[in-house]
Amino acid sequence: MSDLPVTPDPANKTCSCAPKDKSSKEIPNEGRRDFVRTVATVALGSLTSPLLANNLTGDPTHLRELQKWKIPKSRKIQRITLLHTADIHGQLLTHDEFFLENGQAVYKQRGGLAVLKTMLNTLRSENPDNTLLIDGGDCFQGSGVASLSKGKALVPLMNNIGYDLVLPGNWEVVYKKQIMIEDLNGYHATKICANMHHKRNDASTALVFPPYWIKNMGGLRVGFIGYTDPTIPKRQPPAYSEGLRFTKPVDDVAKYIALLKGKEHCALVFLVTHLGLAQQVDLANQPLVQGADFILGADTHERVRKPIEGKYSRVTEPGAFASFVARLDLIVEDGRVKDTNYVLLDVDPEKYKADPEMNALIKRESAPYRAELEKVIGRSKTPLVRYYVLETPMDNLITDALMWKFKPDIAISNGFRFCPPLIPSGKTGEAVITMDYLWSMVPVNSEIKSAWIPGKQLWDWLEKELHNVFAKNPAERFGGWMVRMKGMHINFTMKNELGKRLNWVQINNAPIDLQKKYLIAACEREGDPETTLCRMDNVIAPAHLKTDMHSTIIEYKRRENQKLFMRGASGSYMFDKDFRNNHPNFRILLPTDAKPKLVPDYIFPFNDQDIMNFTSTSVHVTRMVMDIFYDAFFEPGEKVNKPDLP
Q1: With a threshold of 0.70, does the pTM exceed it?
Q2: Are 419 and 431 within 8 A, CB to CB?
Q3: Distance CA 563, CA 339 (A)
Q4: Which of 140, 142, 270, 275 would be a feasible disulfide site paired with 151, CB 3.0-4.6 Å?
Q5: How many Å from the N-terminal Cα to the C-terminal Cα in the chain?
Q6: What ranges in 45-175 are assigned the alpha helix state H?
Q7: CA distance linking residue 316 with residue 310, whole number of Å
C-alpha cells in the first residue's frame, strides 16, 4: 500500500510510517486538515488497494532471509539490489520531515546528502558486486544553492555519492535546455530518457539521451528504460523547454521492452520513470508494459512502502528530499525472479553518521552563496508544511503576502509539492525563515502578474483544476496538488465528473457572480502568452506588477518586523533578534536600571557587557546608526519614513 504523505491507512486509520521516537515533534492537526486527509484517501484509494503478493511485504525478516542466500559457484542464482532515490530538489542538509502517526502530524529530522552517502555506502557494502544506485530526477532544482548555481553545485555532490544511473525529471528543464544538458552531462552516472527529443525546424528528431541502458549484474543482463513527464511544456513555464519535444511512453515502451527482452537478452527489465504515481499505476495496468518487472517511479513524492501491483507490472516511488531510499532485492535463478523484497528506508541521521567528505563538499559548493542564504527574513509560529492536497500553511503564507501587497479579489499559489517542512523550535516556539528556505519554498522567483477574469470563466477554470487533481482516470491527472487560493472559498464533490464537481464558490464571502469580473494576482510563467495567467487563458487587462515573489514575501514578513526599530517607553530605540542575527557585532547600549522597562526580553535580551550608563529617560541614537538599520532592511531608493530622533 502506498504510504501517502497526507493520508492514514484507510483500514487502520493509522500511518505505516516509521515508529514514533522520543525526539519527534508533535503538532496537533487542525480541523480542516481532517477533511484534507479524507479527500486524499478517497482520491487515491483506487491506486493503493492491497493487491500485493506476500513476497513484497517489506518485511525486515524476509530481507535478512534473502541476504542469507548462498550463491553457488555455478552463479545460476544471484541477488541483485537496486537502491532508488528521486525528487531530491536540491536539499543538501538534514531537515524536518513530515510523518502521520495515530492521526497526528509528527516531525522528525531526516535527509541530508552527507547522511545519505553514509547510508548508501552501508547498503552497498551488503552486496557490493550487484548493487545499483538510481536517481529518478528533479535533483538540481528546489533550494537556494541549487537555484543560485543553476544546478551546477549539485553535480560534484551527486558524483561523490556515486550514482550509476539518472533520469531527468520535469524540473531539470528549469535552467533551460543548454544548462540542463551541461549539468546532466556533468554527472558520471549514465543518463537515459526515451521520450526527450531535440526539437528541430524540420521533421527530423533525435533523442537528447539514450533511451535505455543495459548493465551486466552477476552474469545477468539487466535493462533500464527511462521516461520523463511528457507534459513538461505545459506543467512548467513553456520557456523552460524551448528546443525540446516530448513524446508519451505509450508510443514506444512496448518496442523497447521487446528489444531488451529479445535482441538484447535481458533477464530483467525496469522502467525508470518520472511521471507521477497515478500515471505510473495507469501504465502498469496496460499490456504495453508486459515484460517490465518493475516501474521505478518518481515525481509525486509519494512514499510507496509496498509496491503497487498492476496487471502487468509493479510500481514503487521513494519519497523526496533525500529523506528516503527505496531498496529492492531480487533473487534470480536461471534468468527468472524467484524471490523479491522491497522496503522504503528512512535516511535517519541518528542511525547513519554524516560523511565528513560530503560535509566538506557541501560547505565548499555553498560558500559563494552562504552570506545571502543565511539572511533571516522572518519567523513563523505555524509549522510551514506543503504536504496537504487542498490547503497548506506554506502556501497560505504566499497567498497572504500577495493579498496584503496587491489587494486583489483572489490571490493564487500553484499546487507545488517541493520544499520540506519548517517546524517551530520547541524552545522559542518560532521557526526562523531564511533566504535559503525562501528559495526552497519558491525556487523560481517569478514576476507577479494580475488580470481580470469573468466569474463564469473562473468557475470553468476551477472545474478544470479540480479534474487535474481528482480525475477518475489516472491518465487525466495533471501536475501537483490543487492550486492554493485566498479570497475565494469553494465547495465541491470530488467523485463527480468533469464540469460537475463544484457546488458553490464564494469570493470575498459573497456568492460568485458569473457576469462580474474579478481581479486575480499570481505568478507569471515565463513563455506563457500575455493573456494567460496561472493556466487561465484569455484573461482581461493583464498587468505586470513590477515586483517578484521573493520581494513580496520579504516585504510581507518585514511588516511583522516593523517592531525592529521602534520608539521605546522612555524614548529608546530597539532592534529585534533578526537584525542581530544578520549583524552580530552591532549593539545598542542601555542603562542597567532601565533594561526591564525599555527592552522586554522577547524583543532584545541584553547581556551585562552590552549595558552602558545613559540617562534613564532616553537613549541617544545617532543618524549614522539609523542609516545602518535602514541600509540593512530597505532597498536602495525605497521611500521610507524614518522616525524622529529624540
Answers
A1: yes
A2: no
A3: 64
A4: 140
A5: 67
A6: 60-67, 113-125, 144-148, 154-161
A7: 11
